[in-house]
Each structure stands twice: as C-alpha cells, then as structure tokens.
Design brief:
HotDog_dom_sf; eleven-stranded mixed β-sheet; 293 residues; MaoC-like_dom; 11 strands; Thiol Ester Dehydrase, Chain A; alpha+beta
Length: 293
C-alpha cells in the first residue's frame, strides 16, 4: 500500500495527544457514527530520536533489569510510542483512542541498539479486522539507524463496541492447569505502579494512573500498563546482546495493587513466560522470546 508520509518536527508529547484524543472523542467523532471504517493510508515519521540517559537508567531499575548502555526492547517501544499515538490521535483516524484495549505485541529486536544511537522512527496503522468484541487493528512501528531497521514492533489493539463488519464468534483461549505452571517469581505491584511507569516513559493514559480516572473510562480500577508487564517479563528472559524476537498476548488486566505469579520455562529454542493472578489463578499474559537466526 502507498502511504502518505507526515513528517513530524519532533517526538510529540503523549499528554497532549491524549488530551486531543479525548476532545475529539467527545465532539468530532459523533459525526462519524454509521460511516464505513477505513484506516488512513498515512505514516508518521520523525528523525533524531535519542534515549534520555537518566530515563534509561530509571527504566532499567524499575524493571529490575541490568543497567547497561544498550536499549531494552520495551524502552525502544516507549521511544517510538508517541509517534504511533500521533497516528491514532489524528483527525483522520476513525476509531476512538481512549478506552482501547491492548491485545498484544510481536517485536523483532534485530540487533543490540546502543544508548547513544540516533533513531529514525515511523509508524502506521493497518490490518483492520472484526473481533467478537469490536474491531481490531495493528500499529506498526519501525526504528532505523542510518536507513537500516534495527527494531520493528507490531502492537495489536481493540476498539470495543465498534464493529467494522459482522461480529465473529468468540474463541475461548485454553487456560493451562495450575499443575502445568512453574512459578519462578512473584511480582508485588503497588497502586503507584502505573504512575511510576508513566514517569519514566511518559505514557500518562488515565486508565493506568489512579482509581478515579480509570472509573471515568469504564474500569473498576486502574490497571498496569501492558508494556510494563512486558518489560518486567523481558528483564528476566531476553538476551542483552544480539537479536531476538519476542511476543506477548494480554488476556486479563492487572488491577492495581496486585500480586502476579510469574513463570518461565524453556521449549526448544524458545523461552516461554506467563503471568497469572495469585488470587484467582487467571492468566494475565503469556509470551515467548526466541533468538533471531
């Protein structure tokens, strides 16, 4: 597909993007009810993206990761995330940004990325498709150094209650039995977890910040960022050098505060991980890490 490029002067601020999205959801999007859904053929791009060294160290410490001068994969995601959000907050994007459900990620971290390297980031949306609870789609982000893609991430989102076509049947995921799980750790996540992640990577989505803003958007309480959970999992499983591919799927939100059981096991060339509720045994997420060949 030929996409029109929108060049950004700088990485946009997420707080401003969320404010823009809220304003447009309350006013402009009402006029789109009943219109066919179609993703814009556009990509947003910005050059000269560099890591803030203090935020990098703060991120590594928040995740319990090794403090080093190469970028963790979720930190790269955080650097690229505002560019992706600028696509979703734009006037021509047909789905509501606030209240979207994050379903999962597929990422290629193609080589170790140095903390001082300058990245060119581009992002676009594709793959609009029906889901039993609404409409799903993908946001693709690429980070390049000197014209070579070093990191590529595909994030899948769900706009609940908005249908692009017929509603498909719900497919239930199989829950592993408790006996099949091997616990390797316990994450005790306080009520401030979402605010701590936002302070490092700037993602101040209201559903992660506190009880009242989360309730205003239809949740019973605030929840942990999906990418916080991914970052914690990768801190325990991803290699610190070389390329790798990782994925994560989110199944149930982690309402804060929470105690999350975490398990890791090896399967062939893959390291598999999952997290589940200490109270109910319901799985919150599962994923894998594999070396790139």
């Amino acid at each position: 597909m030929n996409r029109r490029e929108v060049r950004l002067d700088a990485v946009p601020g997420l707080v401003g993007l969320y404010a823009t999205a809220l304003r447009r959801q309350l006013v402009a999007r009402r006029s789109r009810q009943g219109e066919p859904l179609e993703l814009p053929a556009v990509e947003h791009a910005v050059d000269g993206v560099t890591a803030d060294p203090d935020r990098l160290v703060a991120y590594q410490r928040l995740m319990g990761d090794t403090v080093r001068d190469t970028l963790p994969s979720v930190f790269v995601h955080g650097m690229a995330f505002p560019v992706a959000m600028s696509v979703l907050a734009a006037e021509d994007f047909p789905l509501p940004l606030l209240g979207m459900v994050h379903l999962g990620n597929e990422v290629e971290h193609r080589r170790a990325v140095g903390a001082e390297e300058e990245l060119a980031v581009r992002a676009w949306a594709e793959g609009l498709r029906p889901h039993h609870a609404g409409t799903a789609f993908d946001v693709v982000c690429e980070a390049s150094v000197s014209g070579v893609v070093v990191w590529r991430g595909v994030s899948t989102y769900l706009a609940k209650g908005v249908w692009a076509g017929a509603r498909p049947e719900r497919t239930e995921r199989a829950e592993p039995s408790a006996a099949a799980r091997t616990r390797t750790g316990v994450w005790r996540l306080g009520a401030e977890t979402g605010r701590a992640y936002a302070a490092v990577l700037g993602d101040y989505n209201p559903i992660h910040l506190g009880l009242l803003p989360a309730k205003a958007l239809g949740l019973k309480s605030h929840i942990a960022h999906g990418m916080f959970l991914a970052g914690r999992a990768l801190a325990a499983t991803a290699p610190n050098d070389g390329g790798y591919r990782w994925s994560i799927g989110f199944e149930a939100p982690v309402f804060l505060p929470a105690s999350v059981q975490f398990g890791v096991r090896e399967s062939g060339d893959a390291t598999l991980f999952e997290g589940w509720s200490a109270a109910s045994s319901r799985r919150h997420f599962s994923g894998s890490v594999r070396p790139l060949r």
